[in-house]
User: Fold these one by one.
Assistant:
Number 1:
Amino acid sequence: MGTSNDVLVLVASGSGAMESSISNLFSRGEKVIVCCAGKFGERWVDMAKAFGLDAVVLKAEYGSVVNPEEVEAALAANPDARGVFVQASETSTGAVHDVRAMGQAIAKTEAIFVVDAITGLGPCR
């Protein structure tokens, strides 16, 4: 996996892993930033709302991506954001987010960075 950190393996669908990350890392009412650039970004939005999170949605058109600068600006505007959600590779369109640059921006905050890498782990490293 290219990391010296712990790796968790879940026996679930990709959606099960997404739901698990929300239910185990966040509590109802907490603010999160959700990058939405396709069908799976929309799934993050729907799940965050279903779990009662206050979702700040950064929307990009299908085929485009949310830029790291947009994430950094959203974090600055929402310093109480507890997390950021994104897909490494938005499989519904083939668009690839710059998770490395996003991670560098998020690392300057206390927010948790949750990346759906089910189809993007290899190409995004």
Number 2:
Amino acid sequence: MRFMIVVKATRDSEAGVMPDEKALSEMAKYHEELQRAGVLLDASGLQATSKGWRIMYSGQKRTVVDGPFTEAKELIAGYTIIQVKSKEEAMEWARRFPNPALNGQEGEIEVRQLFELDDFGPSEAVERFRKMDVG
């Protein structure tokens, strides 16, 4: 089972404030533990939305909207993807995630299970994804 630990953005992360050495050290320690346990698949921080864009769809029409985006609490600042045996194991790891907000401020993470190709049932499209080794 794969899970994504989503780090919610804060005003600081959207302003481009970089974590200090203590925060980086705590994150490095946590991710080293994930790696030693063999459950870490990927992890990265995301740059502020001022450096990004969204694609808005209306039928076949696409509109590009440049960042920044206003609702920081709805934005993502980073992620970690783990592969574990159960939801309970994912919960144990998530509870150990260091506070992602700077200087002990209020922070938030969200944990979401990723779909596996087997969740979709047999289909030609699923087989195409299998051949790409995606999911």
Number 3:
Amino acid sequence: MKIVGSVVGTRLVDGASPIAYGYEEKVPAYCDNGPIFSLSSISGARGRRRLGNESRSRPTGRGTADEPDFTVGRPGVEAPEEPTSETWEAPPVTDEQRRNGFRVIPPADRARVIFRYADQKDLLISGLVAGGNEIAQHPAVVDVPSGKGHVVLFSINPVYRGETRGTYSMVLNTILNFDSLDAGRKLAEK
């Protein structure tokens, strides 16, 4: 993926967050090879970055996800349905993870996506984007509770010169509402 000083499209995910006060659904933002975020509901999870539909093949390389998987000489067992989530969301916690739940992040401490990158076809507004499928739909602005405070992560550059003055308010909203960033937070089920 390569983004060289481009204006890209983002979409509002959580309009109830104080960071998003005053914003509409579509927001252009300046990006210059910012980090690509992926979320998890498990602490210390070293999962690979989810890259969309291309990564839906089997790790063994045999067949596709739609074909039956079997081992020669063993009775077939139906695999349990895997929970699914959007690219910008943390995967839901499975029953197995709940049973051995010492690493499950409590719902109040999970990351909250405020803005995400647009779909691949709507990603580029101006500039150059090569390999946009790697960043499409990934989180662009994330609010993570940390102790008594919050860490706000920007994959975009909200205050780059005069390029996208419309994103300056994201930083200003964060600073002005530092003590109420949990406002509007919907807690997921445990």
